[in-house]
Protein: Type II/IV secretion system protein TadC, associated with Flp pilus assembly
Amino acid sequence: MTLEHPLLIGAALGLVLGLGLAMLLLDNPWTRRPDLAARVDPYLRRGQTSRLLGVPAPEDGARSRARALARVLAGPLADRTVGLLERLTGGHAQLERRLRLAGRRAGVEAFRVEQVVWGIGGGAVGLLSALGAVALRGASPLVGLAMVVLGVLGGVLARDWVLTQMIARRAARMAREFPTVADLLALAVAAGEGPVAAMERVARTSSGALPAEFAATVAEIRAGATVDQALISLGDRTPLDALGRFGEGMAVAIERGTPLADVLRAQAQDAREASRRDLMEIAGRREILMMMPVVFLVLPLVIVFAAFPGLAVLEISL
Structure:
């Protein structure tokens, strides 16, 4: 089957026609039921502004009308696409928290745009695969359509998986940096500096994900937040649970007057113990993986070399 096959051309034209008719019937502004905001908006009193400020320039009139028409036609489709993405990868609040844990400064809208771009890329890969399967293997056009849909979904879910991996890598990097940073804070506090000055010194003299978070905490305190609130929000911005306990411990120590240097040293020791336990767990899992080549590769060879002389002797005696 070639690309000029009438069945393939008819399926492609039917797909495009069906999508166009569905968009015309479902998302046109005349048959679409307006939402609550659109029904209430004409009855709200708005501040009066000068009409001179609202008149577009003569050369931009056609462009502004085209943008308004595109917004009216494509707005509902974009809303439904965002709603589908939220059902697949979580709501707005959950995604915002995950972006904060990954250390991304971009908002949810920027991430949704990236998901759409990845979905388009996956759809393009699926389309090429579908064309190859239909043209070269003679597959059904329905199979090609399913490959395109799976490509789009795969691209969207792949972007979400990459975000999850970013969170995991950031948590691992912070776990490695946490004992050293806690010791530096303990040394600075023991030398006579306050907690805010100690965090600022660590953020200025160190590099990494954790010192950057301490710099953000110091900036939040300088902006007017209390030390307790900034330390508690430090745990909310990071994917490391130990760092959340660290911020709460520092806040309690500052509030109750507990020696802060001893608290920081204890936190650093707990972080090292947690890192040692994680290494032991990883070693236990890797030990099981290391047994697989021994059992499936080395042991069969040993059995063959041990049994081959006996089989050879039996064949000679027979």
